Each structure stands twice: as C-alpha cells, then as structure tokens.
Amino acid sequence: MPADAYGPADTDGLGGPPATPPPTRRRRDGAEPPARPKKRRSGAGRFFRWLLAILLVIVVALGVLIWYVWGRIEKVDAIPEDHGSALSEGRVFLLVGSDSREDLTDEEQSELGTGSTEGQRTDTIMLLHVPGGGAQNALVSIPRDSVVDIPGHGENRINAAFAFGGAPLLVQTIEASTGVAIDDYVQIGFGGFAGIVDALGGVEMCLDEPVQDEQAHIDLPAGCQVLDGPNALGYARARHFDPTSDIGRVQRQRELISAIADKALSPGTLVNPIELTRTALAGGDALVLDENTGPMDMFAFARGIGSVSGGSGATITVPLGSVGNTVTWDPELAGALWTALQNGDDIPPEVIEAQP
C-alpha cells in the first residue's frame, strides 16, 4: 500500500497534527504592543518617609542639645525635703535674680555697670504659680526691701536671707513668710541675664518716658526700642530715677521678663536651629537650678512664663501696707494672695484691683 495512503506523516510522534504556535498579537499598525509599565512607588509614601527621617533627626538633635545644655547648668540643694506647714496646689517656682559679680571680669563689670561689690544678694524675687486645673498662672513679684522674719536672723529685708544663707535660707524664709510651699528654684546672675538677651538678638521694650540712671549705666529715650544685654540689665536694675523706687522696678522687671519669654518662645527662635542653639547655650551658662529640678519642670516653667507674658495669666506685686526705705505687706490682701496660691485658685479680684 502506498505510504501516502495513511495520510501525512506524524512528525511530532504523538499521532496528531503538528502543534502550531499561537499567533503573536500585533496592533493594527504592525508594531509590538507596549511593555507593561513598572509599578512606581507612591509619591505620598516617599514624602512621609522623608518627613519621618527629618523628624527623627530633629528629635535626636534636640535630645543631644538638651543633654549637653543640661550638663552645663549649675545645681544647688535649695528646696527642703520638709516644707513644714507651707503648702501649695500645682507647682510654684521661685525665680531669683542674683547680683553676684563673681563670674564677671573687670571689663564686664564696667560694661554692665554692676560695680565690684563682693558677695551676692537677690536683686529680683518672683514666684511663678502654675496651678493646673483651669486656674490662671500668676507671676508674683516680692520687693527685695520687704521686711520679714528671717529664720535665725530676726527681722530684716528679705534679700538679706540670700546673703546670710544662700538659696536654702531664702526658700525657707519665703515659705515661712507666705505659707506657700516652693517646688523649684531658678536663679540667674547679672552676666547670665545680659547673655541671654544678647543671644536672642535683643528684646523690644516700649518706654513711656526716658530712663536715665547713672548707677545702672543707662540713658534710654522714650518710645519703642530694642535693648541689648547691658541696657536690658540696666533697665531691670534701675530705680534711682523712679520716685516709686523698688515698686516701679519690680513692674519693669516683670515687663522685661515677659518680653524675653515672648522672644525666646517665638517661632523665629524655636524653628531656627542657630537661634535656638545659641539661646539654649546662653541659658545653660546663666542658670542655677535646684538639684531635683528636671527638664520637664523647666518646660512647665517656660510654658508658665509664656502664658503670663501672653496675657492669659496674672502679673502682680505683693499688696503693700507701708512704703519707704523698706516695705511691709498688707496683712489682709497679702494673706488673700497667699491663700490663693496655697489652694491653686485664681488671684482674688481685690488683690488685682489694689495693684499700683
């Protein structure tokens, strides 16, 4: 039988017709179809990864800065373990401006107009009350010429307590005189104060009248102006040009502290790494704190000062009874003030209305 009688040969050896590959799909113009594009990463995903990395770097840098600055701050044992009968609701900071010249060179003493008096006294005494619970923060000035009983030394000006026994005796004296327990101690000297102001690039103050005080080495015109460190220190210390003496001075000190807080806590300082670092280093060199005061306590202090300077708190002087070379406190109104601090309450309206 002829070989072709059985049909075409099975070339695949499978007993069926040869396999035919599927036709390649082509576009009508004959070109190959485009390759499938590779999956691209989301732009939003890349953005958030970069943002997270930047935030991590900032957090680490801030942590290193805080650690470094905290190591430069001088610590003292100022707060007693036993407050006796003194009490307070919330947190009370004692802010002290020392007139110590120990760390100033002769040139700095001349520039700042501090003189060369030995030892140290308190040129500024303030209580910052951060009560929490919805009550307003309060910054209370205590005139340095206030006559009080200093434990172990009898009646004297309150600033003498610092000269007699340093920070511990000053804290003890204030607690005994006010019945208010103090939680934290913050001290700054002449040179440190001027250094912080200069690190901030100066602070703006608006003066209602010219300020001329030879002993404080200042001659400032009326109107708004930026004060550098030496002028700011002189403005805080000046009292001989003012007939109200220490009373007017403590008011100017509160205004100046508020201006410094506004500048230090402004976005222009906080988001500028150079400004922030310079200010933080100046603060680390300037401050003396109680040994148990921590970074979070100082954060609360900064927030408290910021709220007061922003107008959401009270800034007052202890209500006074008699005023002269020395001053005494009004028993009724000062008592109402201390009771408010003890209980964490707002400052009574009658205390605010009695302000000079």
From TrEMBL:
<feature type="domain" description="Cell envelope-related transcriptional attenuator">
    <location>
        <begin position="121"/>
        <end position="264"/>
    </location>
</feature>
<protein>
    <submittedName>
        <fullName>LytR family transcriptional regulator</fullName>
    </submittedName>
</protein>
<dbReference type="Pfam" id="PF03816">
    <property type="entry name" value="LytR_cpsA_psr"/>
</dbReference>
<dbReference type="InterPro" id="IPR004474">
    <property type="entry name" value="LytR_CpsA_psr"/>
</dbReference>
<feature type="transmembrane region" description="Helical">
    <location>
        <begin position="47"/>
        <end position="70"/>
    </location>
</feature>
<keyword id="KW-1133">Transmembrane helix</keyword>
<dbReference type="InterPro" id="IPR050922">
    <property type="entry name" value="LytR/CpsA/Psr_CW_biosynth"/>
</dbReference>
<comment type="similarity">
    <text>Belongs to the LytR/CpsA/Psr (LCP) family.</text>
</comment>
<keyword id="KW-0812">Transmembrane</keyword>
<feature type="region of interest" description="Disordered">
    <location>
        <begin position="1"/>
        <end position="41"/>
    </location>
</feature>
<keyword id="KW-0472">Membrane</keyword>
